[in-house]
Amino acid sequence: MSLKKIQEEYRQTSTSELSKAILDNFLFGLLGAILVVFIAERVDILVLLGYMIYYFFLGRVVNRAKYVTTLGKFIVFPVPTALGAFGGYKLAYYLTLLF
Questions:
Q1: Domain spans in the chain, listed from the N-terminal domain onward
Q2: Separation of alpha carbons 51 and 91, rounded Å
Q3: How many angstroms from the chain centroid is the CA of residue 37?
Q4: Cα–Cα distance between 99 and 86 in angstroms, integer?
Q5: pTM value?
Q6: Number of alpha carbons in the 13 Å side-chain half-sphere of residue 67
């Protein structure tokens, strides 16, 4: 993994494409993490809704083009997904308090 290669790939990627990929990955992590908390808390309605939303979104993630660049593999996918997962873990606690 070369930092110069990542910088070059970043310059070649359009802002809208990068923003869309980051948002998709963030939401993917968020939805996955929320499910774990809902299951642990045994809030059945939230588990059902969480699974439905997660699998609808999973169809979007699975059917997109595969990341072939170093930027995509090492920055665009793991960083927003991990941040989304952490955000989902924190958000799910507050959502379970409502139910």
A1: 18-98
A2: 16
A3: 16
A4: 21
A5: 0.90
A6: 20
